[in-house]
Design brief:
Elements (H helix, E strand, L loop, with lengths): L14 H6 L23 H8 L10 H15 L2 E4 L3 H13 L1 H14 L1 E9 L4 E7 L4 E6 L6 E15 L2 E12 L2 E9 L9 E4 L7 E4 L17 H20 L3 E5 L3 H7 L24 E5 L2 H21 L18 H18 L1 H18 L10 E4 L7 H20 L5 H11 L7 H20 L2 H8 L24
Length: 494
Amino acid sequence: MKFHWFNPFSWYSPKESQDVQNPIKQSPRRPVTRDWTEQWTINSELTRGLYHNSFPGLKLAGALAHKPIAIPILLMGLPIPKCDDPQTQLEAIKVIEDHADECHMNHLNSHLDGTSWVWPFYSAKLQKDCWEFIPDDTISDILRDVQTGELQAIITDEQILISTAYNVQGYVRRRRTFTREAVKIEWLENTMAIQGLEAGIFKNITGDLPIHFPNEADGDRIRGYSEYECMLSDLKNYHDTDLALSELITKFSPKMIQEVQDVDEWKANNGITNIDEIDIASRDFIINLFGKEKTTFEWPAGAQAAGLAKLSQIFWKIVQASPIPEILFGTKVEGSQGSNDNQIDSAIQFVESKQRMKNNPYKRLVESTMRLRNIISFKQTQPVVKSIQWNALDLISESAKATILTNFASGIAALINSAGITKPMVWKMFKKAYPESTDDDYQTFCDGLGEMAKHKAFAAAPYEIIADMTGEDDTLDIKPSTPIQSVAYEQPAK
């Protein structure tokens, strides 16, 4: 029996063939290629350009690409390591407090580029441990044990553009090979002949490779996926549609249709010598003979309405098809997805899933950083982090608390500004993120939001209304919203 390949999704395939064909499955292939090279790196120019709205060809969709990544990151907070030994617990928390800002950047790199790579090392020049973020697109090769799949080595290859003097620039090319035993550094190109570049093989004192934080990785894959991968085509479609609609509105001027019996007579009546001289935008009136001449204007209203409808359809396709909950786009929840409670639950679950993805990498990163500190201080203990608990406010310092709460407030502000979240919903998210808060604090929380709203309205109100509200305009150090005209002094008559 001979089988012929056909496309199961083709309109020309017979219905009986489509009914028996299952495109999800296929005949077994022997052998099956299993790719452990992890050779596909991220296009960071595209992901960074989308996030900062600077990538050519997608700028009109950049506004839709920022909030879905920025808001969840602000709501994530900080990972707090949990250890059995009290002293180790204090030292582990100190690591996170010292690197709180780097944690936020680590989450951004992971969600934007699919994988964030962090290399903890000790800087003799700065006299402290540092976290280096290795861009995913600079990692050219990932070596794995063919039997266990364990990482064996990471190779980076990067060309660095630097300035050495006023208006003087050049390149240096650096290749690094990280293994658990050593770090090999090679300078392959040095166009500026920079002196003092250290090359050679150096001992890896912690025995750790650069630690990877994958986003939504498949199975045993090392690299993850950018949040933009599932919506990139629709973002491009939105940009192209918006651009075409904008060009239609700006370039298509109204078309004048003039019905006349005698062209020369009509031109003479309107003071026109050449039809090319007619400027529709600047002409105030047109003289027509009653019942004999008529002027109308044509405008592509139908095309404009169709373009706006298409833009709306693409936008809601991006929102509804994305795994990111609708409320995290900063839009007001409407329609069939308009259950606020369900949206808040989805947002909380989404943020918690992102936190869980990073638990094991953070355990390794904190342990590696603590080993660095122990080696520098000649301690023999081997730190062990048992687990990661997010946003444990009772275990961290006031400065770390301020970092967490500031980021949380920034994320919530984006949701409040869209009128898509209420006070109970904000409290629900806060209670979930910070379990140590109690229900007794709810009234205080609501009062604080109310006072904040009153202050915002007070600050934005005109001077005259504020004076009427307080009755103490002489004591208010506020400039009037409308300038007061000075009145010339007139000398009284004798």
